[in-house]
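Exercise 7. Given the components listed, write out the predicted structure of the assembled complex. Treat all entries as one system.
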Amino acid sequence: MQPLLLDADIFYLYDGSLEGLLSAVFLAFDSKENPSDILVEEGLQYSLLGSYQSVSTDLDHAERVMTGIVSTLGARCYEEVRSVYLSDEDHKGGVILRFLQYAFKHGRHSLLHLAHPAVNEFKEMLLRVTNEAHFIMMFARFAELEGGVFFARVEPRANVVPIVMEHFAERFNIQPFVLFDRAHQLAGVFDTSSWWLVDTRRLDVTFPDNSRSEEGFQSLWQTFFDTIAIEERHNPVCQRNFMPKRFWGTLCEQIPPELRKRRPSTETPSQAAKRAARLTGTVAAHGEIAGQGHDAQAGPCALEAGSCP
Amino acid sequence: MELLDKLTILADAAKYDVACTSCGVSRSAEKGKLGATTNAGICHSFSADGRCITLLKVLMSNVCSYDCAYCVNRARNDVPRATLSPRELAELTMGFYRRNYIEGLFLSSGVLRTPDYTTERMCESIRLLREHYGFRGYIHAKAIPGTSDELLVRLGTLVDRMSVNIEFPSAHSLKMLAPEKNRASVLGSLRFIHDGIKENYQDKRLSTTKRTRFVPAGQSTQMIVGASPESDYHILNLSASLYRSFELRRVFFSAYVPVNENPLSPLVREAPLLREHRLYQADWLMRFYQFDVSEIIDEDHPFLDLLIDPKCNWALNHIDHFPIEINKASYDMLLRVPGIGVRGVQRVWAARRERRLDFDDLRRLNISLKRARHFITCNGRFSEGIVFDPSSIYRTLANDAHRRHCKGVTAGQLSLFEDYETGPQKAQEQTAPLVTAAMTVAACSRHMSGSCGAPGSLAENMGISTTVLAKNNTSATVTGFWEEEATRRRENTHAALIA
Ligand code: SF4
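Answer.
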């Protein structure tokens, strides 16, 4: 983001927590310094040219920033800051800082100054996070495990499990479930009355196998998915635009037919009416197929969670 | 028969229904019950044709005693038949919902014996799902025209959205292609549901939660495009009046996919997807951009231009309103700029209070300038290299569209994103047209030679004499107009393709 690092560049470093980030923001305001960026300390590539200052997390400071945002910019704005914090992008700290510097100066109205670079980059980053959250609401696929817990594995590009848990906990309030973000090693757990987050980095958890009815529902869904497409309108480009390929790994309907456990045994009426000739070609695929590839992709994805370091 | 086989048959039979949306009603969760709905709806998957899957779209039964010419399930076709029991349907819906595959159920059915008998069984299935299984997700039910009022009320209180298909733009086509259905009863059902919604909404004795219980997500309808000779002018005027008189949430268009070999069902070789797409764009203009139908299409040019979208078309026909100055134009005028969507206008509107905007600012606001740059100035200046001349703008825009089709990118989807701002949440309100270069050209040439939608050939196929059609088609000189229109289009197309 900064093409050249000048001597004067100050970088604040924090521990990666929201409190840490807000403490760094506090320090920037308090010291009237203007750090070029606020970065996570862990795993940082230092450069010789900048000067780095590690900010210790101070709950008190963080809370003062929080109340400051809520009272001058509104509770909604605080939520937005929190969402941007969940982004995977390295420069989110700087983006939040520059936005807050601008917004505290210009008041509530500044949220509408969309063309201003500080507001613009903040809003853009926010949009990327909320889009990712929306993708998870669309594409998370739960599988029922033995014992009745539902399990979904997702790999979003932002740490969005905390913002989607409420959505799932509401609609699925009759079933315990685990929403496991493998990319961020974070699991949202719901036990039919409340939900909480579990850091799975240091956990060695094993999940049971899929329940007996699970396979059946997956193949029903796969069948439905294949059948509902109108052949004459075939349009894979459009499909990928709406459902990016990076999600396909966890979508059971996207498992190629030859890797699935079961195949539909009847042809559809319109197939019967129109595709008699082509059927001969597909008969081969109806044979016995083992589902090893399937397991690796989306079936008992739970097993993979067990082997987390 | 196994459930898997039934599902295959019944999903296959339901796939031509367009309305797969789960929006229009927000219902919070209730402890101990499965499901909730969000106002914007959520898509859960996209099938190989690029259409959104948000609901479990099935027929309760594909056994049908009617014999509609355009339908796979008609009585005379020899296809496998199946019927889902209420229990099977409920378990399927619950099982899919629990796994986050769907937002709910879209239930339709062939006519089992009589409309009333069918509707009664549909009610029974849905009641089981709602009451016994406690399902609070979205349910869309298709009402069969001719169902008694009492049953419509019963169905309407169980579901979120209802739709009655008008099927064809004119009563005459409906009669030709779906002999057992009649326009009056379709309109009657639409009116009855509309009145019911209104009454329910105005009934002050009901608490606010109960007040919207009858069809809370409103009703929609669907018509088939390209299987009958009506013009876009006819279709759009009809949908405008449907929006007006029945306050429909949506009028869906479905490009006719020929499924039956039959002398009665018209011989359309390919589904007119581009035409369908343009109709949706026009529909969007009426619903979100405050366009009146008369601004989009007129009797003298009764078909939408396939090469450029209707908003561009309007702008080119009213070029004296342009260019508009981005920093001064009124909100309504900003809405009329091709390439700028509703949300884009909102962003410009907010941002320009802080500063005068230039083209870089617009880019920063994610305004797609591809089309817009021909029609706007920033601080009195055009974007670089713009020649403000209607015919050259037309060539550029049509050429762009052509190139996009060549790349195999779906013009439809793209322009919907740029122009009409259907985010992923809204996308489900939109079907996904497939357009390739070949398609476009085919569509245009078909359009021009008059083999699709043109009165002559179609009328023959349908056994209707051209005179009847001419009367029916509001314009007495259909053929004459058609030739003129064809010439105009051919010239335009050539100009665009050569340039
Ligand atoms: S009523 Fe007509 S359109 Fe509906 S299922 Fe029966 S034949 Fe098909």
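Discussion: Residues 478-498 of chain B form the longest helix (21 residues). Residues 406-499 of chain B have pLDDT under 50 and may be disordered.
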